[in-house]
Write a structure and sequence with these properties.
By secondary structure, this protein is α/β, with parallel strands linked by helices. It is 41% helix and 16% strand. The chain contains nine helices and ten strands. The strands form two sheets. An eight-stranded mixed beta sheet has the order 3-2-1-4-5-6-7-8, with helices on both faces. Strands 9-10 form a two-stranded antiparallel sheet. Strand 2, helix 2 and strand 3 form a beta-alpha-beta unit. Helix 1 packs across helix 8, helix 3 runs parallel beside helix 4 and helix 4 runs parallel beside helix 6. The longest helix has 29 residues. Bound molecules: 1,4-dihydronicotinamide adenine dinucleotide. 1,4-dihydronicotinamide adenine dinucleotide binds next to helix 1, helix 4 and strand 6.
Length: 286
């Protein structure tokens, strides 16, 4: 029996790109999949049923089990309806892959509040709403698997993506706290920063690179993180082109001042404060 067999997994934004690969991979491994997709354009405009329906048809014709959902993750009611679809159709929800996303790129000096808000609504609020709707079920059944889609833009920054980077880094903060709150209920929460050729990256990365980034190379690691086998939590992985790697924050031993230092005293210790040669995996000091 595979680690996702008979598990009910909601994949948001599964009507194309990476989400489609996740949904197909999970269904091929015996999971029952809610294929959620609003069916809009890359910047988030419009809506339609075709994207989700097509993926559900693909899964069913391959002998898998899936149901379509067309609600938006960015509203509380939409997210509740997505989780309700899992409960009504399959009687449970065991995993959420918060993958839906849009782009509204632009240099920060030109970034209007509307682009900022639209991106936070889908990525960060979308993650919150869908996971929040599944959370009581996870707690009650003492099992839950959460994977959020973060991005190297959130981990390291990227020109023209201040809105997107902030939302993606916010999702890492979310899983860090959910991992702590979920631990005693066997709920794990992890993040994957994918690299894949999809409509989101088609005009951003060079073709030679895109040719190496089949989304199907990302799906197995995401599938593992929603499986029963996975016990890892609060971890971040960069996955793409066949490479699966963990990313983490490190902290050094720092410098301790016994009294408030002067500017000159801080300056004198600055290189020691920045010396990462003794760094270890970071942890919450409280
Ligand atoms: P995509 O544009 O092919 O897929 C995103 C899907 O989300 C679309 O099908 C879209 O209709 C759906 N969606 C958008 N707003 C929605 C809403 N409010 N409710 C429900 N569905 C909605 O893009 P891709 O590349 O597959 O991206 C998937 C995730 O991976 C996104 O969160 C993206 O930010 C993230 N990502 C992708 C990278 C890549 O290399 N492709 C790099 C880093 C992160």
């Amino acid at each position: 029996m595979s680690g996702v067999e008979d598990k009910v997994v909601v994949v948001t934004g599964a009507g194309g790109g990476l989400g489609r690969s996740y949904a197909r991979f999970l269904a091929a491994n015996g999971a029952l999949v809610v294929v959620n997709d609003l069916g809009g354009a890359r910047e988030g405009s419009g809506a339609g049923t075709q994207a989700a329906d097509t993926v559900v048809d693909e899964i069913r014709s391959a002998g898998g089990r899936a149901v379509a959902s067309y609600d938006s993750v960015s509203e509380e009611a939409g997210a509740a309806a997505i989780i309700d679809t899992a409960l009504k159709e399959f009687g449970a929800v065991h995993g959420v892959i918060s993958n839906a996303g849009i782009l509204r790129d632009g240099a920060f000096h030109k970034m209007e509040a509307a682009s900022w808000d639209a991106v936070q609504k889908v990525h960060l609020y979308g993650g919150y709403h869908v996971i929040r709707a599944a959370w009581p079920h996870f707690r009650e059944q003492k099992f839950g698997r959460i994977v959020v889609a973060t991005s190297t833009s959130g981990l390291y920054g990227n020109f023209g993506q201040a809105n997107y980077s902030a939302a993606k880094a916010g999702l890492v903060g979310l899983i860090n706290s959910l991992a702590i709150e979920g631990a005693k209920y066997s709920i794990t929460a992890n993040a994957v920063a994918p690299l894949a050729a999809t409509r989101m990256t088609e005009d951003i990365a060079p073709q030679e690179l895109l040719d190496k980034l089949n989304p199907e190379l990302v799906a197995p690691a995401v599938g593992y993180l929603v499986s029963e086998e996975n016990q890892d939590t609060a971890s971040v992985f960069v996955v793409g082109g066949g490479l699966v790697q963990r990313v983490a924050q490190f902290q050094n031993n720092g410098v301790t001042f016994t009294a408030p230092p002067s500017l000159a005293e801080i300056g004198a210790q600055w290189s020691q404060i920045n010396d990462m040669s003794d760094a270890q995996l970071g942890r919450n000091p409280v």
